[in-house]
């Protein structure tokens, strides 16, 4: 590359690069071996420091640390999509995508010199932006801003010390993961298509078929209703279990859209903990420090225990229903829910949590605390849809003006109907997922089986102003 051409390319990168913010990740090396298991299935009390820390320091940071970053620099050679001598522990994913912002996240097995490149889909990688991370970090949250609404972007992590014959990308499971892509929300946030699935944690072939079906609908985002990974001990560690049973089967959608999960009861099983906390809290980073409160709010310490975000006139309230079975958290979430339901910026709210308040399946009694504490708050509110999992089936129920959908049939481990409730409108114990189409008129919800056949559908009008 000639010197003049190199200067032009550098100038282009500097003009188009969005602001980058990084939260350095500490090592999460502890996993629950046999000696660590406890009979209750509940984690020990969480420490306020959490799993995030500066790698160079043995003590966790009191607050998330934002290092000083060097100016973005253009690579001196093109990307070669070949595996480098470095491996992902958590592959690059989009964890939030809005109209003009996107929060990406990744973690490497070892510290190094890593650069994020991103570009508009259809253009060469060298035409977009380039951000160099501080040296000797494993990864973190990367916030891109000043993106164009309704555009598809691609992104890749590259190693900057792989030689002059090309910048290689990290290896993943013996192959490649990068690049990923994501579509920013259109101006105003709508129309938008979401997919909903839950209880997928066995890592089965049927789950991959369901994910392929979801990908065919080209959703803008995916909602997971909890229980991302089961039987963590089979893989030896939470990290290995997430790699095999979540990232691998969900790769077709994680390469195209953000995924917004909630905690399930299996996320709290002893073998699913790392450093005394659900590994989920490590895989889905806290974004509170990166997104403005009018877009994203979190509750609970540490990490993303429960949270809320807005898309156009819709508010999504993502709760941890397992709090009713733990020493603390239920009262804090009830206050959080009450505050969010009073937010007048949104015409409609959609609630997501793992345990359904009512179900005709096996776990009918598990929702009693939710019936008592959360459902009364919905009376007279703008909540139009409630999404959950836990019972391994699909069911649609009518709960005093609120449509409740149990989307827990993300595997072949299904639960038959135990006793049909009077509120039940449709029940199917078959592997399935849900597609939600949102616009200013309301929500269309459709359930599909693993063959892509339509099971059930309903039109939900937007609540009146």
Rg to the nearest angstrom? Answer: 22 Å
Number of helices: 8
- Overall CATH architecture of the largest domain: 4-Layer Sandwich
Beta-strand fraction estimate: 25-35%
What general outline do the C-alpha atoms trace? globular
Q: What is the number of domains?
A: 2
| CATH superfamily heading of the largest domain | Metallo-dependent phosphatases
Cα separation of the termini: 59 Å
User: Which parts are unreliable, with pLDDT below 50 for 5 consecutive residues or more?
Assistant: 1-76
Question: Main sheet, how many strands, which sense, barrel?
Answer: 8 strands, mixed
Overall CATH class of the largest domain: Alpha Beta
Widest sheet, order of strands? 15-16-17-18-19-21-20-22
Percent helix range? 10-25%
Structural class: alpha+beta
- What's the average pLDDT? 85
Number of strands: 25
For this structure, the CATH topology of the largest domain is Purple Acid Phosphatase, chain A, domain 2
